[in-house]
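Exam revision sheet. Question 4 asks you to relate a sequence to its structure. Input first:
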Amino acid sequence: MQTQYLLTPYHKNITIKNRVIMAPMTRSRADNKEKVPTDDLQGLYYEQRASAGLIITEGSQVSKEAVGYINTPGIHSKAQVDGWKTVTKRVHDKGGTIFLQLWHVGRISHPDFHNGELPVSASAINPNAQSFTSNGFKDTVTPKAMTAGDIKRTVNDFKNAAANAVEAGFDGIELHSSNGYLFQQFFNGCSNTRTDEYGGSITNRTRFFFEVLDAMKTVIPQEKIGVRFNPSLHGLFGITIDEETIPTFEYIIKKLNDYNLAYVHLSEPFTDVSDVPYAVTDIAKHFRPLYNGTLMINTNFDQEEGNKVIADGDVDLVAYGKPFISNPDLVERFEKHFELADWDKDTFYTPGKKGYTDYSFASE
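Answer key, structure tokens:
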């Protein structure tokens, strides 16, 4: 393909130098008591990848209650905000743009993270998954169904986290409404059997999400907010597709046309859903006609596929995950058609610099 659409600038609410987006990826490197990102680890890691059109950070919990994985950084304390300030400065000094992903895992957690207390969710339904704790993988438990008060408090947690992200110098935020975490637990009938205003109808099951979005836009401009969804997630993180799953996401995406967001970030199916009733196999093509704003896609695209999906008009931006782990200069490698380095999956979630900040640049 002669034109590398991935390498062209993009200007629509979000202004970025290219369309190669660094996807959010949990790396479990905040190995300290306060779960603070540090200059020598997260600072260097993100600075090395500042040539991306946009960096979306790993998911960062909006409260202590929101955590569900070991050593993930938060955005709810002053120490965490101060730590993130060093990260954003390093990225900005290199000419980069960086959004913070805001995260609450809900029931994909374990009492080990909450002093023995139960994690929370839309309903008291065990996802029958596993949680990665400091003592290894443990089976999930039946969570506590959130009360109306719990929901109100969590809405405020996201609002405060958004304000903290602004203070920390981020160019924007991404609301993690995907991958079986708290918002998707409200969206899907398999995890939400509530009979109050947050359950039952599609409007009710999406109410919490829109309450959070409306609260956040009081502290950060709408055009600095991105949202992420995984509509055809099935058989993972306790999520099962039913006849209302895709219509729920269609409702959400259409309603987001009333907002002025930075982007909507969608994932193609993580597993083969070609034989799954009610599933959609081509997420980008299905949702493009429904949304007027900036659309981003990810999940296992290579360089050629990324250029093609933009050329076809199905999306505007393409997010890359694992290739950015082992290729901090992924944009330059795309530009020069250099071979990509392989990643070491054994160091995805281990402490320290190995497999994190020690990958080489092609120029080296």
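Marking note for examiners. DSSP finds eleven helices and 14 strands in the chain.
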